[in-house]
Amino acid sequence: MYHALLSNRYLTSRVIPMVAVGAVALCVALVIIVVSVMTGFLNMVRSSGRTLMGDVIVAYPVNGIPHYQRLIARIEALPEAAAASPVVDGWGLLRMPYPVGTRKDTKSVQFWAIEPASFARVTGYDDTLYWRPPSGEMSEADYRHKLPPQRLAQALQEGRTLRDADGKPGIALGVHVSIANERQSDGSIRPIRPSRPNQPSPPTLSDFWWMPHYQVTLTAQPTAGGTMVTQPKSVIFPVVNEFFSGVYLIDESRVMIPLDVGQEMLHLNEGKRIDEEQLDELGMPTVIGIDPARATMVLVRAVEGVAPADLRLKVEAAYDVFQQELFDKGTLVPPPLRFGGGVSIKTWEQQQAKFIQPIEKERELMRTLFSLVYLVCAGLVLSIFWAIVYEKTRDIGILRSIGASRLGISWIFLRYGLVIGVGGAVFGLGLAYLIVRNINAIHGAMGDPPIGLIYITGGLALASLLITIVRSLGGRLLPMVLGVLVTVTLVLAFVGVVMLKRAGGVVIWDPSVYYFSEIPNELDRQAAVITMIGAVLFSLIGAFLPAAKAADVDPVKALRYE
Amino acid sequence: MSEIRVAQPPAPAATDTEPATRSLLSAVELYKTYRLGRVDVPVLKGATLHVKPGEWVAVLGASGSGKSTLLHLFGDLDQPDSATRKSEHGIPISKRTRSMRRGMCPKCNYPIGVSAVCTECGYSFGEVFFEGKPLSSMSRRQRDRYRNKSVGFVFQFYHLLPELTVLENTVLPGLVGLHRWRYYRQIGQLRARARSVLESCGLGHRLNHRPRELSGGERQRVAIARALMNQPKVLLADEPTGNLDETTGEEILDLVAKQHRDGLTIVMVTHDPAIARRADRLVRLHDGRIQDIQDTHG
Known about the structure:
The complex is a heterodimer of chains A (562) and B (298).
Chain A: H1 2-12, H2 16-53, E1 56-59, E2 65-66, H3 68-76, E3 81-95, E4 106-114, H4 116-122, H5 125-128, H6 149-161, E5 171-174, E6 181-183, E7 189-191, E8 215-220, E9 233-243, H7 248-253, E10 254-258, H8 259-265, E11 271-279, E12 285-291, E13 294-295, E14 297-302, H9 308-328, E15 344-347, H10 348-351, H11 353-391, H12 393-401, H13 406-437, H14 439-447, H15 451-472, H16 477-502, H17 511-514, H18 525-551, H19 555-560
Chain B: E1 5-6, H1 17-22, E2 25-36, E3 39-51, E4 56-60, H2 67-74, H3 81-84, E5 87-88, E6 91-92, H4 93-102, E7 127-130, E8 133-134, H5 140-150, E9 151-154, H6 166-176, H7 183-200, H8 216-228, E10 234-238, H9 246-261, E11 265-270, H10 273-276, E12 281-286, E13 289-295
Parallel strand pairs in B: 4-11, 4-12, 9-10, 10-11
Antiparallel strand pairs in B: 1-13, 2-3, 2-7, 5-6, 7-8, 12-13
């Protein structure tokens, strides 16, 4: 039991072991943070596909799938499919309500015309609606606490149906479609307040660019309808809510409108098919049938436990039957063929493959590269222990003289290594957890350094300078050198913060580059456990050599060692 | 001051086996050579010494005469040449160790018991005996136990562990000899024993001090307390007063003498004849051998 006593005393009586624990902790934290962020990023890419598109996507762009209701009924009849929903997608121009004045901003957007109820069953649409009454999960600073709860409840209800209180079709915008929505450091959204003269105090809802309070105009150019020249179509929508999917590309460019309105805007709604050659008695073209409404996509969700790839095969089969059935019936407008007809049926992973695969490779590359950090751990522990064994040679001789075995001596140093490894791993985990959980706040602070940080670093630098001067008066070199080093570091930190503030901060995680508006902040538990075990193992490996050296110390030489 | 008288000359090597079995601690025909660079420096050249139970033996000798080496061999901190050379008299060390454990002569296979000299063929080899048993026939664990329980070391430079308090330094041999499963049952007893030893050494008021906070004399008292912690049968003291002034040295010797009066066997190495006179018996180490043995008390 003397091992515990001695290794604890060796640990606590000097600074070097603490430096080793700190260094191992930094190595562990570094690996956990990098792998966690990469894994989180990958998971976000994966889950975003599923949340936003369901498991399988049947797509026939531009022209749309006719009789899609039959297809949906057939798909929903499959035991593997939980729900299916039609979508019409297109591109348009959105006239925003800002700025103040007559010249308003116009933005290019992708609109999805959806059936909100079925769309919510297939995707996580309802959960993405941002303006909702505050709940316990929201931070105190969340702007939603400041809005009237009944107004938020109304916005949520209107967002779910895409209809306003009067039953008029409404639009749900991605939260970053409006430039008036600013993301806060806690991840929440806050609408900005335009500067107007004579602003009332306290401000009212209309004093902020809170989108559900305004109307927007969506203009779309129909492309369906063969070779006919078509006119752009504009619709004024009240903004019913905004959605926050977390995928910046989508939140910044997508809007949701009711399916029937979207079909109408793109001329994909139900219409009469006429024959211009045959005229009736009034000289008008004869109606020869009904041109059915179309959907450019059908999104399908699998029941729990069914792999998207399996569902895809079933949906393909269902589509073939659906197509054949209508074709055999001699329908006026049969659905296109799966092969050669331009219809694609893909899983969400296939749809997202161009994003997912490179990220997977990057993560493995990073994991491998950063695993070299373990060698740093081992080298660090080895060099520190080597020095300690050298310093403790005489103690080893003493211990041998009172009967300590070679194994016992080596165990003191192995235990020492174990404590450094475990201590470093635990502190590293704690550090990694703190950083990963607050990574968005840290990033936010880097983007906009708080003014207090300038005062703190400046004050510390000044205090350090004064302490250094006072301690240098004693004439000792070590306190002076230490003081100068600390002061220079603090001055550099101060200058860095000031420059950062002057430059308007740095944005490393640019949402437009990384697709997501937030840095993933979930700790990868598996990576954390593996990294911690690795750190402990490599610390032990680093301690083995000095421990063996200690065991081999000749006690007579050790006792003569001064 | 008592007169130093010349005692009987040592018995010839061939008859040294008998005292080895009767003595508490014996060195028989010890050879030890150190290598300094490319030069072999012989230190012990057949040193033989028998220490009886309860005896205080002082080993006198000039600097570099091999006094400390002899003490290290007694305390199993070092091994005589016969135990470290790959072969001795043409007999591999492994065979010698096996034969020794069986009590046979490695050369002629004659039963020699625990002797270091074969009466049949005259084969002899350097060996240290404790209670008649050769140290080289002990396993590593037994030898660790021997250093822990049977002998206690006191060094000239105290050799205390600076990170530990006086009490912890003293209790350390007890901890070393303690099995981990018995730790919680016995740690209280060990601490009580260490306190009692320290109090008997006059250090009851210094229990929680670090060695750097003590005077030289106090440090040496702690070293003595540590050596006595496990109630050893032999105290091996290497110039215990060599680093102390005369008065403090006398105090330390008084402390050692008190332990001796209580029945402790002591082997003390010194180069100071005045200090050596406190012992029961004085031997002189010269040219690598125990040359003369003097009984200081007649």
